[in-house]
Amino acid sequence: MNSQIVLTESVYYILLSLEEPLHGYGIIQKIKLMSNGRVDMAAGTLYGALNNLIKKEWIILTSADGPKGKKEYQLTEQGKQVLIDEINRLKELVSNGDKYLKGEL
How many Cβ atoms are within 10 Å of 58's Cβ, its own excluded? Predict the structure, then answer.
């Protein structure tokens, strides 16, 4: 596990949404659905993050000609590993929080 990388909630949800190719609006909608409406990502935030994630090679642009000519993005293997590492880190946080609540720490 690469413990040096801690994802923001926005980046976490973007990576989580990109197992299959999606365009920007689809990513926004999927994040909203996954977070039960709690995370409503603005387009400017999303596209800035997408550009940074492409530079890090965590996602790729799979098509500039997706539905209605929209760009589509997808998770890379490197991005998937970063996401798995973050999920494991979050599980540890929750596990320790549960232990605290039970008085086990």
Answer: 23
d(CA 94, CA 26): 29
Q: Note down pLDDT in tens along the chain; length 105 residues.
A: 455 789 999 999 999 999 999 999 999 999 999 999 999 999 999 999 999 999 999 999 998 765 566 889 999 999 999 999 999 999 999 999 999 999 998
C-beta of residue 24 within 8 angstroms of C-beta of residue 35:
no
**pTM of the predicted model as reported, rounded to 2 decimal places:** 0.87
Sign of the CA dihedral running 21, 78, 81, 89: negative
Which residues touch 74 (CB under 8 Å, ≥6 apart)? Answer: 18, 19, 20, 21, 22, 59, 60, 62
How far is C-alpha 84 from the chain's CA centre? 11
